[in-house]
Amino acid sequence: MKKFQLVEGSFLKNVVILMFGSGLSQLIPFAFSIILSRLYTSSDYGIFTIFLTVSAFLGVLATFRYDLAIMLPAKKADSFHLLVLSIGITIILSLIILIITLIFPEAISRALSSKDIKPWLPLLSLSVLFLGITQAFNFWHNRNKSYKALSYNMISQSSTTATISTINGFAKMKAGGLIIGSISGQLVSTLLYSLKFISEDRKRLKKISWKRLKEVAKTYIEYPKFNLPHRLVDMISITGIPIILMMLFSQSIVGLYGFMLRVLKAPIAILASSLGQVFYQQFSEKVAKKYSVKALFTKTIRNIAFLTFPFFIIILFWGPQIFSVVFSKEWREAGVYAQYLTPWLFFSTIASPVSQVPLTLGYVKTNMFAGIINNFLLVMIFVVASQYYSDPTYVFLWVGTLMPVFYIVILLWFYRIILKYEKTRITIDSVEANKIS
């Protein structure tokens, strides 16, 4: 009988390495949230949630989605130029954001329905700068299978964010303490990635070619052309929901909603992000070599569903009690929101690790339209339900009931295009075999 061994470069070993980093990086803020929930109010978290959602929305623009393409080129030199292109676009966009937030802070705060966020708007440029650079380096290290570096970086970022946020909380800095803590973590992540790149790949900087930058920008133009609008639509719903809640309910409701998502996503992301990064690397590599990918897809879906199901069952039945005991009675309502949104979060978690399937198989445009439909439905449910119910819990109940149906349809579509790829792959192999014979 062969002894079981985690061989170097194996799927399981890579997942374990990333799970350790992702797990610890998520458990750190989860543990600190027990303290932070007693240092900051739901109103503070409301402002912080608005800041994060706007930052995440602008962060999508940061690289024009060229960072996604870093994994794909056969030549490492092309990947390097995509990395440089992504970082260059990020720097330019960050400067533009800084200028706009300095000139129009009043108009922006009114548009976000929050006058309290006004003093912190210029920091959006820093957040977007660090976010864009980190995203690009994430894909660079993922391509190079530097999973230990990815793991260490995640831990460093989350521990810095949690520590600075806690110190600021004791200093009574209110929402600004959370914002500065988040940016501090992003800064540490950016510095660590930059130092690693300088130590290992600085020789490549001498080989930057403007001609090659233009070539890779043109070759992978589908990403800014189709994936960027798709992701922007995704972020419109993510950004729009807190703003809708702010307009129709209150800043405290936004804080409860934002806190609930941060708490629930902490344990979920341990699996989803780790499986997602390794799945994308393995999946794109197999597709490039015309290997079968159906088993990898089904195994990933099965594993994420099996491992997260117990967690969601616990939240479904005992969410309010858990939030009340762990984070204090002020946050019990956040547990109610979690209870109602559990089905939606469960199915979106299952779909998350395999979300790159359409992009890798060439369905960029179709995937964009699917994303538009998804986000249109989500926003419409929030808007329509808010018109009929003065209690936000009923709005969350409708979201938790209707949105899982869409994710089931999406997963079935992923499986269908994989089967289509398998048939095409077999046909090509047969033709080549006949030519040889």
Task: Briefly summarize what is shown.
By secondary structure, this protein is mainly α. It has 15 helices and no strands. Helix 1 packs parallel to helix 6, helix 2 packs parallel to helix 10 and helix 11 runs antiparallel to helix 12.
What does this protein look like?
- It is a single chain.
- With 437 residues, this protein is mainly α.
- It has one domain (11-436).
- It is 82% helix and 0% strand.
- The model is unreliable at 1-9 and 431-437 (pLDDT under 50).
Keywords:
437 residues; disordered C terminus; globular; disordered N terminus; single chain; mainly alpha
The major sheet is characterized as:
none
Average residue-wise pLDDT:
87
| Count of domains | 1
- Run of helices and strands: HHHHHHHHHHHHHHH
Shape: globular
Oligomer: single chain
Fraction of residues in helix: over 70%
Number of helices: 15
SSE layout and pairing:
Layout: H1 11-39, H2 42-62, H3 76-103, H4 105-111, H5 123-143, H6 147-170, H7 175-201, H8 210-219, H9 222-248, H10 251-288, H11 294-327, H12 332-351, H13 357-360, H14 364-388, H15 392-436
Helix pairs in contact: 1-6, 1-10, 2-5, 2-7, 2-9, 2-10, 3-5, 3-8, 5-7, 6-7, 9-10, 9-14, 10-11, 10-12, 11-12, 12-15, 14-15
